[in-house]
Amino acid sequence: MSVSTQPKSSAPPVRTAHTQHSDVLILGAGVMGLSCALQLLKAGRSVTLLDKGKAGAATSAGNCGTITPSHAQPLTAPGTVSQALRWMLQSDAPLRIKPTLNLERLSWFWHFARRCRDDIQEATTRARAAIALQSRDLLAQLITDEGFDCEFVPQGTLHVWRNQQEFEHAQQDCELLNALGLPVEIKDAQQVHALEPALNDQVIGGLYHTRDAQLRPERYMAELSRRVIELGGRIIEEQLIDRIEHQQDRIQAVHCGQQIYRANEYIMALGAWTPKLAKQLALSIPIQPGKGYSMTYDRPQYCPKIPMVLEERSVCVTAWGSGFRLGSTMEFSGYDESMNRQRLNALERAAREYLQDPHGPNKEQEWYGWRPMTWDDLPIIGRAPEQQNLTLATGHGMLGITMSAATSLLVKQIICAEQPALDPHPYRPSRFTEKQYR
Ligand SMILES: Cc1cc2nc3c(=O)[nH]c(=O)nc-3n(C[C@H](O)[C@H](O)[C@H](O)COP(=O)(O)OP(=O)(O)OC[C@H]3O[C@@H](n4cnc5c(N)ncnc54)[C@H](O)[C@@H]3O)c2cc1C
After folding, report:
1. Which of 1, 31, 44, 321 is most buried, by the most CB atoms less than 10 A from its CB?
2. Are residues 240 and 335 in the same domain?
3. Hey, whose CA ends up nearest to atom 25 of ligand 1?
4. Domain co-membership, 257 together with 281
5. Are residues 85 and 25 part of one domain?
6. DSSP, residue by residue, 223-272
């Protein structure tokens, strides 16, 4: 049954003082929520965003800011589980799964482990490459067209190694990446130092992914928010959504304490928090927070030019004109809000192993964020099963900034009933309830 939320008479709608209405209500104002808002405002819809904190200030702020279609290969790779088990007792390991009896987390790991197979990995890589590549070009276009001041630089990313055997092993993936339209150049020791003089002499080679790019994420968030407001969007901060009211197959309202928000269409873009509210709609959204850390400094004297991944330590290094950031580590420990000093220290230790000057003299910020991790390492984009007026834009894991522009275009095309520019099938929210997929 379809229940309209629009008033039936032509008389102005009668609403209580604390009820507000818009065409589209977006739950969550991270990079997904803000990007969807921008697309829909440009399509002529009225848009309201709700966030329990400040817009763009959660996971979308302190991340590494790299735009990396080159990361198309998913975490669900053969060998990930055995590696994670070996690292289980090492508290500063790049990937850490904290032992748990939590049933949701156990079920997530079980499904994740089942997907760590060669055949599934290749299909997942293709699906991730498709959205990440389209998104990289859309991001560049958007930032240029809007004149966003967010330190966007399309100069690639460089993955570097200290261990010859691991470097040679990684080169096996180059053929697939090149075939997917993700050009990668192999650099020996001399070439890698010529490309990036900030590396120390322990580095023996690297892979240069030329289609990648970088931006400063907190600046990008500020520019997106500014433009959303300029176009008439409303961003309502410090609004904790506590209840979603629904009747049969439609959402009727979203409640934030005494405030009630109604819309014709709803978008859930709550990142790692998505399952908490999706539960109220009995939606199966298998997302676990994948906790990562970053530390931000002013620029070191020998500052890297190109964003880098220090491979054996899985640490990302990004330098902008305005600063320098070390980030990464992946920890599955539920919604744990503590700062783990050992994991923060591991970032600096890794930088010392690869760089002449590991960080700037002044530390500006220590940060953690929760990546919204699905067990298949694919995002969740599309109409929610059994909720006609709800679209999901979540589960982007390690590539939320990278995939944001293509995600928001797809969401706009779904809501405006347009032909999608990208095959939406791999990202469909219904996959988690399909027997053959689980
Ligand atoms: C260390 C680290 C490094 C990373 N580096 C990169 C990178 O280099 N490149 C890249 O592409 N990606 C990177 N990522 C991943 C990227 O940051 C995320 O995928 C992305 O930010 C997710 O965006 P989002 O909008 O889905 O979630 P968020 O930014 O977390 O937004 C969700 C919003 O929902 C709000 N919310 C939640 N619950 C409620 C509620 N009940 N009521 C109201 N509001 C609510 C939150 O306050 C939040 O603002 C990194 C992540 C980490 C942790």
Report:
1. 31
2. no
3. 30
4. yes
5. no
6. HHHHHHHHTT-EEE-S----EEEEETTEEEEEEETTEEEEEEEEEE--GG
Q: How far apart are the CA of 222 and the centre of ligand 1, in A?
A: 14
Q: Would you say the CB of residue 398 lies under 6 angstroms from ligand 1?
A: yes
Q: For residue 3, is it within any domain?
A: no
Q: What is the pLDDT of residues 159-206, one digit of tens each?
A: 999 999 999 999 999 999 999 999 999 999 999 999 999 999 999 999
Residue nearest to atom 30 of ligand 1 (CA): 59
Stated pTM of the model = 0.94
50 lines ligand 1 (CB under 6 A): yes
Which is the closest atom of ligand 1 to the Cα of 327? 1
CATH of the domain at 87: 3.30.9.10
Which protein residue has the closest C-alpha to ligand 1 atom 35?
28
Any idea of the CA torsion for 411, 269, 382, 225, to the nearest 10 degrees? 0
- Report CA dihedral (137, 58, 246, 258) to the nearest 10 degrees: -140
Q: Whose CA is nearest to atom 15 of ligand 1?
A: 398
Q: Give pLDDT tens digits for 64-109.
A: 999 999 999 999 888 888 887 777 777 778 888 888 889 999 999 9
Residue 1 within a domain: no
- What total of structural domains would you count in the chain? 2
> How many angstroms does the Cα of residue 110 sit away from the middle of ligand 1?
24
295, 280: one domain: no
In short, whether 254's Cβ falls inside 6 Å of ligand 1 is no
- How far apart are alpha carbons 204 and 196 in whole angstroms? 12
Residue 396 belongs to a domain with what CATH number? 3.50.50.60
